[in-house]
Amino acid sequence: MPLRSTKVPRDAVHHPVFARVYAKLSVAAETSAGIAAYRQELLSGLSGRVIEIGAGNGLNFAHYPSAVSEVVALEPERSLRHLAAQAARSADVPVDVVPGAAEALPVKSEAFDAAVVSLVLCSVRDLPRALAEIRRVLRPEGELRFFEHGLAETKGMARVQRALDRTVWPLLFGGCHTARDTVAAIEGAGFQLGTFRRLRVPESGLRLPSSPCVLGVARRPFSETAGG
């Protein structure tokens, strides 16, 4: 793996209680909330070298198509990284699970054909910096595949999201901020937006601040020169 030096500590994120709860709930949500189908759609058609940022407990790994030659999966939380490493051993494609933070990816510029983020941009500490790093490590015209929480389109829920983001929600849910406008942030970071669609997860039942989601693809422009 092409590494680059970084000053970010190996365990830049430490949420041991949330990680244990998340690991159990996320597995259940694969079927109960239809998350597995969204993961399949997210990763469909990928090929070449892929970097996954915030791999969690590795639930994406089973859905990578055979055309993917390698996945470098970064996970900053130690206990989730351990679970991801276990999941990597049974994946159909080569997966290397490593520590690292989204704001300082420990890989060389223009090293990957695609980048994947799923339910992680809500919790990074510096969203513009994280997106700039993703853009840096992608080759020209490389794809960013995203499945993320997002700001609700309805004013009422958006107000609830913003209020909770300022108070208890990030404390209870591992730094998650549901009111971030993910699509606008991706476009503002210099990516060219492709197709995307807004979702409610789960599609029926109780509507939570985390229910509004967006799934889609963006590209790093061909003419852009990567930094650092």
TrEMBL record:
The source's domain of life comes to Bacteria
Q: Does the keyword Disulfide bond apply?
A: no
User: Keywords, A to Z?
Assistant: Methyltransferase, Transferase
Which CDD domains does the record match to this protein? AdoMet_MTases (cd02440)
Q: Which GO terms describe its molecular function?
A: methyltransferase activity
Domain named Methyltransferase type: which ranges? 52-145
EC main class here is transferase
Q: Write down the EC number.
A: 2.1.1.-
Reply yes or no: does the keyword Methyltransferase apply: yes
| One record GO biological process | methylation
Give the protein name, as stated in the record. Answer: Class I SAM-dependent methyltransferase
**Which organism is this protein's natural source?**
Streptomyces maoxianensis
Q: What is the lineage of its organism?
A: Bacteria, Bacillati, Actinomycetota, Actinomycetes, Kitasatosporales
